[in-house]
Amino acid sequence: EGDDEAEQPAAVPTGPHGVVLPDGCANQLRYGFRSDDAEQDSRSEDGERGEHGPLDHELGVVAELDLRHPTTIPAPLRFGYGTNGLTDLRLDDALGLLADLGYDGVGLTLDHMHLDPLAPDLAERTRRVARRLNALGLGVTVETGARYVLDPRRKHGPSLLDPDPDDRSRRVDLLLRAVRVAADLGAHAVHCFSGVNPADTHPDTAWHRLTEALTPVLEAATAADLPLAIEPEPGHLLATLADFHHLRHALDDPAALGLTLDIGHCQCLEPLPPEECVRAAAPWLRHVQIEDMRRGVHEHLPFGEGEIDFPPVLAALSATGYQGLTVVELPRHSHAGPHYAEHSLHHLRRAALSPSNPPADSPQSGPAQAAPASRSAPGPQPATPTRAAPAAPQTVHPPTAHTPVAAPVTLFAPPTRPSTARAEGSTP
Fold first, then answer.
1. Vertex 270, ends 227 and 248: CA angle to 5°?
2. Residue 80: is its pLDDT beyond 80?
3. Which tens digit of pLDDT belongs to each residue from 368-412?
4. Which end of the chain is more exposed for a tag (fewer CB within 10 A), N or C?
5. CA separation for the pair 194, 253 (Å, rounded)
6. Do the beta carbons of residue 85 and residue 337 sit within 8 Å?
7. Residue 264 CB contacts under 8 Å (≥ 6 apart), including other chains
8. pLDDT tens, position by position, 48-66
9. 3-state secondary structure the chain
10. How far apart are CA 41 and CA 234, in angstroms?
11. pLDDT of residue 72
């Protein structure tokens, strides 16, 4: 999940397939897992969501907002923190910490430290976690980017692109397990990624492997009424928003396929600034990860140490009506996880209350007029807007690290964006 220092992007930031964003989607504020005429929520009066979902009376799972129906009403942002940044804490302690700090939810990475997806008693462990989440009032997204979870010698291997079909099937099995866990937890999405294109593999072959591998996972997600939210990851086959649209079209635009948007990755390599990426991604947005980052360097940074101006990003996110979690992702900062969890929530709340980001119920915070074009209609990519230059990074003094954080890795020289000077100190 965003920390492969040796991975190089497989294509220029605008995408290797000539795929452009649909006409008008930079201003498109439509959101939802289903269309406007979607069927009503499948929950019955006694709280059941069917054989693939949690039973409120059995697990005590509180019914969350229905994130599978569309809305254009500006929504209050709901912040979470990723457990991959709290690996030195027991899961029970990590969840308690986040609840005490005031987080709305958690990005739960399936790994051997917290919730082992390969454990023989996975179902019982999942039930215990569901009860704990409910008791704490935390929402959840299930994430699948754990290091070494399938292979003790390959950090994120095998992937969906592995040349060995048996190895690809192991990653598929992990994702199928993740869908079952997510359904039992009442999660709002399952996160995944493509993986790095193996050496000597033609891109067409890699894309074929990816679509083939995702098909059974999408079928399971559809049956569970859950979105599968794939993340564009620097250095991976699917690295950009343009690559996401290529996959979407290759799979014939399945309803269950959604997008995980990492705000830092937008800063790292997308041609649009992060707030415009949010607007462009809105129709497919199912999960959001957030951290600071610098242009052209894939390193997840604490807030204030990178270049992102967060108030416009959070304002754009709220305006889309996105109701899922916005999860802080700092996987290399577990050595000081409690400190960074507290610091991150303070920063996000301050940025969300910035004058450039009015509350969701404020009259001036209403959504812009959505473009009338079909979400899949081709059209020219929106022009790159002007963007303010970043303020000087703030200094953060965490507790003494037990292990050093890896040095930043410069991936490539991304295209420049026009910028204008910004008043010093305008970033919270």
1. 35
2. yes
3. 333 333 333 333 333 333 344 334 334 344 444 433 334 444 444
4. C
5. 17
6. yes
7. 2, 289, 290, 291, 292, 293, 300, 301, 306, 308, 329
8. 333 333 323 233 322 233 3
9. CCCCCCCCCCCCCCCCCCCCCCCCHHHCCCCCCCCCCCCCCCCCCCCECCCCCCEHHHHCCCCCCCCCCCCCCCCCCEEEEEHHHCCCCCHHHHHHHHHHHCCCEEEEEECCCCECCCCCCHHHHHHHHHHHHHHHCCEEEEECCCCCCCCCCCCCCCCCCCCCHHHHHHHHHHHHHHHHHHHHHCCCCEEECCCCCCCCCCHHHHHHHHHHHHHHHHHHHHHCCCCEEECCCCCCCCCCHHHHHHHHHHCCCCCCEEEEEEHHHHHHHCCCCHHHHHHHHHHHEEEEEECEEECCEEEEECCCCCCCCHHHHHHHHHHCCCCCEEEECCCCCHHHHHHHHHHHHHHHHHHHCCCCCCCCCCHHHCCCCCCCCCCCCCCCCCCCCCEECCCCCCCCCCCCCCCCCCCCCECCCCCCCCEECCCCCCCC
10. 36
11. 56
Q: Tell me the mean pLDDT in the region 141-165.
A: 91
Could you report how far apart the first and last alpha carbons of the chain are, in Å?
26
Residue 371 confidence (pLDDT)? 32
Paired sense of beta strands 190-192 and 228-230, if any: parallel
CA-atom Rg of the chain in angstroms? 20
- Measured distance CA(5)–CA(196) in Å, rounded: 12
Reading the block at residue 239, the tokens are 């690295």
Note if the pTM is more than 0.70: yes
Place of tokens 């462009």: 280
Q: Any idea which residue has 């990005």 for tokens? A: 107
Mean pLDDT, rounded, for 12-37: 31
Give the confidence band of 202 by pLDDT, cuts at 50, 70, 90: very high
What does residue 128 show for φ and ψ, rounded to 5 degrees?
Answer: -65, -40
Query: Are 358 and 315 spatial neighbours (Cβ–Cβ below 8 Å)?
Result: yes
Averaged confidence pLDDT in the chain: 77
CA gap 109, 129 in Å, rounded: 13
Longest Cα–Cα distance of the chain, Å, equals 57
Question: Is 21 in contact with 280 (CB distance < 8 Å)?
Answer: yes
Residue linked to tokens 């005590």:
60
d(CA 247, CA 228): 13
The CATH topology of domain 25-39+53-420 is TIM Barrel (3.20.20)
* Alpha carbon distance 259, 266 (integer Å): 13
Distance CA 212, CA 127 (A): 31
